[in-house]
Write a structure and sequence with these properties.
The chain contains eleven helices and eight strands. The protein has helices at 16-29, 48-55, 82-87, 98-103, 108-120, 133-137, 141-153, 182-200, 202-207, 221-225, 242-250, and strands at residues 4-9, 37-42, 61-63, 92-95, 124-129, 164-168, 210-213, 232-235. The protein has an eight-stranded parallel sheet with strand order 3-2-1-8-7-6-5-4. Helix 1 runs parallel beside helix 2 (48-55), helix 5 packs across helix 7 (141-153) and helix 7 (141-153) packs across helix 8. The model has no long low-confidence stretch (mean pLDDT 97). Bound molecules: 2-phosphoglycolic acid (PGA). 2-phosphoglycolic acid binds at residues 9, 169, 174-175, 213-216, 234-238.
Length: 253
């Protein structure tokens, strides 16, 4: 059965002391999680080592990276590799976040390489994708999302989907306070699952967790997460405060 997941994307926020204080708070607050739930934080890479160390004091808190390079090693100043993540006990990574696509020119074909590199290292991929406002307004959003999936992921074998989580994040909802309605989220998540079913069959598609991201807050999380094809959320701004993040964790059922 697919799991419910709440993952916090800290982006480029929090200095060392703030990152450790937040992690300590989360470890203190997060009780035992039911078998079907997961909770993760994705700090900036410079904090990964110390956040992993503090998070090891909790049974449930997982730690993921925000990005990795597609090459195993080499002359790529400023980058980090999957092997480096692994060596710090980091077993998941966000790939394809809209900020990486928009500001660092990551496209589906590059992301395909990154996906392969991560999975080859045994690192779970949380693949982020979603349409921009103009695409929703001109009603190409379903096609855009289908292409983002097909071009970066549909070369995978069905068995490799065990290592993939999807995070649908409409770009117009990220950091804007303008969240998708629960109906809009469900409509797109059902579309995503049907595209998966067409290529990989029902069993595979039903096993993939599809998270929603974009202005998820304590007061809207429950309604969004209760949609049948929404399996939790990727949380930006509201993951930086223990109280807000824990309220969103509590909205998973
Ligand atoms: P937000 O960010 O919750 O601040 O909208 C979500 C994300 O970018 O993953």
């Amino acid at each position: 059965m697919r799991k419910k997941i709440v993952a916090g994307n800290w982006k480029m926020n929090l200095d060392k002391n703030q990152a450790l204080a937040l992690t300590n708070d989360l470890v203190d607050t997060l009780g035992d999680l039911p078998e079907h739930q997961r909770v993760m934080v994705c700090p900036p890479s410079i904090h990964l080592s110390s956040v992993v160390e503090v998070a090891s004091g909790s049974k449930g808190l997982e730690v993921g990276g925000q990005n990795m390079h597609q090459a195993g090693s080499g002359a790529y100043t400023g980058e980090i590799s999957g092997a480096m993540l692994k060596s710090y006990g980091v077993n998941s990574v966000l790939l394809g976040h809209s900020e990486r696509r928009a500001y660092f020119h990551e496209d589906n074909s590059l992301l395909r390489e990154k996906v392969d590199a991560a999975l080859a290292m045994g690192i779970e991929v949380i693949y982020c994708f979603g349409e921009i406002l103009e695409e929703r307004e001109n009603e190409t959003h379903f096609d855009v999302v289908s292409s983002q999936l097909k071009e970066a992921l549909f070369h995978l074998e069905a068995s490799q989907w065990n290592g993939v989580v999807l995070a649908y994040e409409p770009v117009w909802a990220i950091g804007t306070g303008r969240t998708a309605s629960p109906e809009q989220a469900q409509e797109m998540h059902a579309h995503i699952r049907s595209v998966l079913t067409d290529t990989y069959g029902t069993e595979c598609a039903d096993g993939v967790s599809i998270l929603y991201g974009g202005s998820v807050k304590p007061d809207n999380a429950k309604e969004i997460f209760s949609q049948p094809d929404v399996d939790g959320g990727l949380i930006g701004g509201a993951s930086l405060k223990t109280e807000d993040f824990m309220a969103i964790v509590a909205a998973m059922s």
